[in-house]
Amino acid sequence: MKYGLDNFAAVKKTYIMEWIYLCFVVFLFMLAISDLWVGVSNDAVNFLNSAVGAKAAKFRTAIIVAALGVFCGATMSNGMMDIARHGIFQPEHFAFSELMYIFLAVMVTDIILLDTFNSLGMPTSTTVSMVFELLGASFAFTLLKMNGDDGTLGFSDYLNTSKALSVIVGIFVSVAIAFTIGAIVQWITRMIFTFKYSGKLKWKIGIFGGFAVTCIVYFMLLKGIKTMSFMNADIKHWIADNTWIILGGCMVFFTTLMQLLHVCKVNIFKAVVLIGTFALATAFAGNDLVNFIGVPLAGYESFIDWRNSGSGDPSTHMMGVLNGEARTPFVFLLAAGIIMVISLATSKKAHNVTKTEINLAKQDEGEEMFGSSKVSRSLVRMTSSAANFIIRHTPDSVRSWIDKRFDNTEIEKEEGASYDLVRASVNLVVSSLLIALGTSMKLPLSTTYVTFMVAMGTSLADKAWSRESAVYRVTGVLSVIGGWFMTAGIAFTAAFIIAVIMHFGGVVAAVIVVMVGLGAMIHSNLKYKMKNDEENGDKTFRAILNSEDKKHTWDLLRGYVAANESEVLIDIAFHYDNITEGLMTENVKKLRKSFYELKDNKDKLKNFRRKETICMRRIDQETAMTKNAWFFASFNELEQLYYSIRRMCEPAYDHVDNNFTPLPQKYVDNFRPQKEALKNCIGDFRMISSRGEFERLRDLEPRLSGLQNEFSDMRKELMNDIQAKQVNINTAYLYLNILQESESMTITLLRLTRSSRKFQLG
C-alpha cells in the first residue's frame, strides 16, 4: 500500500513537472515572437537603408521588396539551429532543467537588450547578442556545476569559447574592411559617374549594372540561399565546382540585359538598389533566423526528449540529444516569416534605427543626432591634417581634375533623398560582395557591421562629412561601434545574472524573471512612444528642409525661429526665478536644479542655431541678405541671456550651499518686485512672439528701460552700503552680481525686441 502511494506521488510529481516545463516552453515561444518583432526592427537597417536613403522607390515599395525577401528567406530556410543547440555549450554535460533556465535567461535578456537598442535608434547585431547571452548563461551554470562536481571536467568540457572569440574578431574585421573598401569603391565609382551622372551613362551603366547584379548573385549563392531547403549536397558541390563559370555567364547576361533596359529608359541604379535590398533581406532571414527562434526550438526539442525518456527528474536527465542536427518544421518557419514581415511593415522602431544610419550618411547638412566628443574632434583634426598634406603634394592639374569630378553643386538625387542612387548602389553591391567573400574565406563578418560601415565609408568618400558636420558624424559612428562592443558585455553579464537568479530561485524565480522581462519591454515601448511624440514636435524643421517654394520656406522659417525663441525665453524666465528665489529663501534644491540643468542649455541653444542657420540657406538670396544680420543679432542676444543666468547661478548656488550669510531682508524686499517685473517682461515677450504679434514688442521697450534704471539705482545704493560697511562683504558682492546681471538682462532684452522685430517684419 505504501509502495502504491509512493508511486502515485512520484507520478503526480512528474505530471506537475511536465506541465511546469511545458509552460516554460510556451514562454520561450512567446518570448521568441517578441524577439522576432524587436530583432527585425533592429536588423531592418541592414537591407532598407540604401533604398530608403536614396529614395529608390516609395517607402512602401521598399518595404514590400524587403518583406518579400524576408518571407522567402524565412520560409525556405532549412532551419539549421546548431549554434543554439551545441555551438556555445556542450549539451551532454547539462541537465534538462539547467538548459531550460539557460534558454529562458537568453530570451529575456535578448528581448530587453534589442528593444533598448531599438529605442535608442542604434543598430546592433542579433548574432552577437545571442552568442554572448548563451555564453553568459551557460558560463554561470558551468561555474555552479564545477563548484559541485569532482573536478574531472574543465571549462572546455562545458563551453565552446572559440565561438565567442570569433565574434569579437569579426567586429574588428568587419569594421576595418567594410569601411575601407566602401570608401575606395565609392571614390572610384564617383570618379567614373560624378554627381551629375545622367549624361555619362551610355555604355558605362550596362557594365556597372551587370557587375553589380553579378556581385549580388555571388552573394546569394554563397550567403543567401546556401541554407535553403532545396540546396542539397549535390547542388552545393556543383555550384562550388562551377562558381566562376556561373559568374562569367551572369556577367555577360546581366551586362547585356542592363544595357537593353537602359535603352528602354529603365533606371538601372534603382533596379540594382531594389535587387540588392531583396538579396540582403533574403540572406538576413535565411541565416539570422536562428538568432530569434533557435533557442525556443532547442528548448522544445529538449522538453520532448525529457518527456519521452520517462526519467522524471529534470535535474538528472542530460541533453546529449542536442548534439544531433535538427531541421525545423515548415510551420515554424512560415509563422516566423509572417511575424517578421508584419514587424517590418508596422514597427516604428525599425524606421528609427534606419533613420540613424541615413542621418550619419546624408549628403547635406541637417539635424545631427549626435554631439561632439573629444575623440571625434581629435580624429577629425588628424584626418584633416593628413588630407591637407596629400592635397599640397598633389599636382595642380590632377587636383583640379579630381575636384571637377567631385563637384556636387549640381548633385542628381531624388527629391527628399539623403544621397543619390549611385552611392546607394555601391552600398548594396559592396556589402553583398564583402559578406560573400567573408563567407567563402570563413571570416565571421557580421551583416550588421558590414552594411553599416560600408555606408559610412561611402559617405566619407562622397565628401558628405563636411567640416561643419564631421565631428558629429564621427561621434555617431564611434557611438554605434561602441554600442556593438557594449552589446557583447551587457548580453553576457545580464544573462549570467539572470541564470544565477533562476538557479537559486527555481521555478518561481524563472516565472518572475519572464514577467519582469515582458514588463520591461512594455515599459520601454511606452517610453519610446512618449519620446517619439516629443520628437515629432520638430516637424517644422523637416518641412523647411523638404520645401521647394522659397516664399513658403520663409513663412515656415519665421514661425520656426519664433517658436525656438519662445522656448528659450520660457527657460530663461524659469531659471531666473529659480535662482533669485533660491537665493532669497536659501533653497539649495532650486539652485542645484538650475546649476545642473543650465549645463545642458548651451548645447540646446547651439542646436537651435545650427538648425536655423541651415534653414536660412533655404530662403531666397535677397531675403537672406536683408535678414541675416537681424537673425544673428537675435540669436546672440538669446545667448547673452543664458550667459547672464549662468553668471548668477554659480556664485548663488555656492553661497547657499556653503550656508553663508543670507541676504538682508531689506534687500530681499527691495529686489523681489523688480525681479517679478523682469520675469513678467520675459513672459510677455514670449507670449507676443508665440502669437506672431511682433509689432507689439515696441510696448515692452519703455517697461524694460524703466527696469534698467531701477536696477541701476539699486546697484548704486548697494555700493554706498558697501562703502559705509553696512553689509557683509561676501553677501554684498553676491547681491551686486545679481543686480548687475539683472540690469544686463534688461539691456539684452531691449536689443532683442528690436532685432526680433526687424527679422520678422523688416
Describe the structure.
Helix 8 (204-224) runs parallel beside helix 17 (421-440) and helix 21 (550-584) packs antiparallel against helix 24. The chain is mainly α and 762 residues long. The protein has 2 domains: 41-533, no CATH class; 540-761, Phosphate transport system protein phou homolog 2, domain 2 (Methane Monooxygenase Hydroxylase, Chain G, domain 1), CATH 1.20.58.220. It has helices at 2-53, 59-75, 82-87, 96-120, 126-148, 155-158, 161-193, 204-224, 233-241, 243-263, 268-288, 290-309, 330-346, 348-361, 374-392, 396-405, 421-440, 447-461, 470-535, 539-546, 550-584, 588-616, 621-657, 665-691, 700-723, 729-761. The relative contact order is 0.11.
Brief digest:
With 762 residues, the protein is mainly α.
The domain tally reads: 2
Largest sheet: none
Coarse structural class: mainly alpha
Q: Which term fits the overall shape?
A: globular
Q: Percent of residues in helical segments?
A: over 70%
Could you tell me the strand content as a percent range?
under 5%
Strands, total number: 0
> How far is the first residue's CA from the last residue's CA?
104 Å
Q: What is the count of DSSP helices, taking H or I runs of 4+ residues?
A: 26
Mean of pLDDT: 79
Order of helices and strands: HHHHHHHHHHHHHHHHHHHHHHHHHH
Radius of gyration from the CA trace? 32 Å
Primary descriptors:
single chain, 762 residues, mainly alpha, Methane Monooxygenase Hydroxylase, Chain G, domain 1, globular, disordered N terminus
